[in-house]
Every structure is written in structure tokens, then in C-alpha cells.
């Protein structure tokens, strides 16, 4: 719990929503509503996050794709409706959060400022400035930890000042999380006088300047607390499924009815309380004592989230390779052509391309699908930097979460946490295990919808007559593969082996010059086929 104690001179409370876009189990809202004559529930439209960027590779701002912005707006609309049922409303203001908030604190005679504690670097920096102002102005600040089950700094303290870097050690330290609040509101204090602040309703994407946005193009997942609780209730009703849930099992190609909860976007925005989710799972386990256990169980997935939050909070430069003490220093390729082919679903590997189309259209894909495309981009085939893939996920995923996204990319690229680089996801056989007919590919890559089952995962092997019959000529209607998987994966394993040896020899203290030397050495040792293919790409480029 984060509390700045001082005598509040005003009688009003300001509840600043950022994440935690919900009424249930919201300690900041609970505290703000107690003993206050007026309550100002505020959300600030931050141009840093929302302003359209015409130069980005997909519709959206410089930081977020339109799917995620739309999901956030839906969540705010739902919050506003739920607040109105309690005699309140959501106040929307636009501008720099620091400037807007200070103006509101002054104009509304605020004595108590409440907001959920946030571990993301952007909010950490912003909150220091806000708390500093509030302290000088004699305003009480209440900033509880409620986005996560545990306070990451508590775990780090228990571990001697460093974050635990294995899941098992984290779980041992964590123990049981606090229970969710059981507060049920019949009403909230009214909104007071608004002064000269220009309050608006929750904007639409068009109001924000996204003129070309077509509603049919958005993610099929609807934002908001009401939808989150509905989805949770539906999941928990299937007690057997909850008890037997076992990651990494599940079908990554199931798209009509995905084989997972799809609660991650709701946890990301705090439309669903992780503590309440945890309690609901525990209630199911009590009625069905024979159930899976962490790390593979459903409860285990929530603990993975906590593990990454704690690792991220306690590791400087967690979001980059350079200067990150837990990240292997690897001489990744700087190849924009390969990156764009991956990002734009043009690798020539239908399983990979179909997943990337799903990501762009839905803003979501199954965790095993994420594993497939992340492995392919980095240590599996293309040897492109994990930071580049992270940026694409960060933009396009509706559940993109700073700590989890960076943690997973380091994991899947074998840069940290997981080091078995010889184990890769094949772009041609992995999807086939779940979907031999290629229905997932046919849905997201309609250009291949008539390709026979025997060739759907490797269409370049289809004879010309089959390609003609399927109305899909490889190299014209759908691209040839950007690499030969067999030789590329062999090459990646060799590079990873030599890189690991260097990291070990230098005890992880690998300099820029060391990486340059290693890169030259690795390029010289390339197989002739790979070298020739790379030369052809440079000539074409």
C-alpha cells in the first residue's frame, strides 16, 4: 500500500482512473468514496497514448494500435454506465496528465487524491511528480497496490533486494495474496462543482481523430468490467475445465471458440481484478480437490503474471538487451526486410502469416501461436532482435502489458529465463498437429483457402497444376518462403551456441565490440545456401 499522509484541506476526493477500470475490488475507489462530500471520478485522455500517428505501420497512435485504443474506450464507456447507476459519472479531460491533474486538484478543492499504484516506468515517473505536488499542497494521496496480487517491492525485499528469477523461487516467496474487497455500493458521493474544466463524454475513435476507422474491422473482444465479469462467470461455470486447465496444452488454431479464457485484456486494463479472479479459481478448486497445480494450472497463469511484474519492477533496463543484467547479449541481425515480412504476414510460411493476420485483425492470439511467431522471428529462423518483435506486439495486442510482453520476448528468444535454444517451434509442422486441414490458415489467409490439405502448410511444394487449380501461384499470389527453414534453424542454433559460449566465458559482461567481433565471425561461418539467399535479398532490396 502506498500512502502519502498529510492533512487534506478540501472535502472532495479525486479518483484518478488509469488502469483499474472497474468498480469491484477497487481499494482506491473505496477509500476515495469514504467520508467525502464529493467524489470526482476522472480519466485523462493522454495524447502520449491516444493521438493518431499517420506514420505508424498500422492505424493507431505512436504507442498503441487502434484495436487497443478502442478496447480502452469501450471499457471507459462501461465504467461510466456503472458509475451512473451509483449516482456518479466518469469525467473525461484531455491533455498532459500532470498538467490536467494539478488543475483539477486546485479547481475542485480536493483533499484526497486516490489512484491505483502502477509499476510501469511511465507511471512511476509521472506519479513521483504528482505526489510531490500533492504533498506540498497538503493533499492526502492514497495509491494502493491492486493491479497485481502482490506488491512487487515486498517480494523483492523478501528476496534480499533482488527479484527472484525463477518461477519456483517466486512462488515460495509470494505466499497467499490478500483477499479482494467485498464492498458493494448502493451509491457514491455526488460529483461536485466542476469549475472551468471542460469535461466531455467518453470519446469515440472518430472523436480522437481516427476518421477512417470502420467498426467491422475491430477486435471481436469487447472492453469493460461488465464483459469481463460475464466472461469470468462463464469460465467458472465449467468447473471441470477450470480444474483440468493445463498450459501449454490447448489448441492455438481454435479461432471460432478459442481454448483459453481470453481474460488477459481485462486483466491488462484492470476491468477484472486479479484478486477476485484468484478467489474464484480457489472456490472452484475447493469443490473439485483433484485439479492441476502451478505452474501449468489456471491459478499458475496468474502467478506467472506476478512473476514477470516482479522481475520487471526489480530489473533496470528490463525492456532492452543493452544494460539488462538478466539478458543474454546476442548479436541479432538488423534486417528490416525480414522484420517487415514477418510483421506484414509475408514470410511465405502460412502458419506464421495466418497468426500475424489474426494479431492485426483481432489484437489477440493464443499463447502457443505467440510462441510460434516469436520463436520464428528470433532464434528459430530469422535471427531478428526480440526488441523489434516486442515493439510489434506492444502495438497490436489488446492485452499488451509492459512487464509480460518484455518478459515473454526474452523468454521465447532464449535471452533470459529459458535457455533451451535447440527446442524450436517448426513453422511447418507445429500447427499441423492441431489443425491438419489448415482451417485456421484458410480463415485468416483466404488466398490459400482452396489449397489442398497436403500442401496448405508448405504451399511452395505444390506442383504448378495444383497451384493453378487452387487459384494461388506461389511467388505471385502468395510469397515464396523468406528462408529455408531447415538451413535457417540450423544456422540459428549454431549462432546461439557460439553466443552462449561467449556470454559464459565473459560472465555475461559482453561489450559492443565483443558483439561486433562475434557477429563477423558468425557471418563468416554461414552455410553457403544461407549466404547466397541473403545476397539475393540484398540485390532484390
TrEMBL record:
InterPro entries (alphabetical): Crypto/Photolyase_FAD-like_sf (IPR036134), Crypto/Photolyase_N_sf (IPR036155), Cryptochr/Photolyase_FAD-bd (IPR005101), Cryptochrome/DNA_photolyase_1 (IPR002081), DNA_photolyase_N (IPR006050), Rossmann-like_a/b/a_fold (IPR014729)
Photolyase/cryptochrome alpha/beta domain boundaries: 11-149
Name of this chain's protein: (6-4)DNA photolyase
Binding site for FAD: 260-264, 301-308, 399-401
Co-factor binding comment: Binds 1 FAD per subunit.
Pfam families, sorted: DNA_photolyase (PF00875), FAD_binding_7 (PF03441)
Residues flagged as site, Electron transfer via tryptophanyl radical: 332, 386, 409
GO cellular component: cytoplasm; nucleus
Cofactors named for this entry: FAD
Reaction(s) catalysed (UniProt annotation): (6-4) photoproduct (in DNA) = 2 pyrimidine residues (in DNA)
SUPFAM superfamilies recorded: Cryptochrome/photolyase FAD-binding domain, Cryptochrome/photolyase, N-terminal domain
Species the sequence originates in: Pisum sativum
Catalytic EC class: lyase
Location of the region described as Disordered in the Swiss-Prot/TrEMBL record: 521-541
Protein family according to the UniProt entry: Belongs to the DNA photolyase class-1 family.
Gene Ontology molecular function terms on file: deoxyribodipyrimidine photo-lyase activity; DNA (6-4) photolyase activity; DNA binding; FAD binding
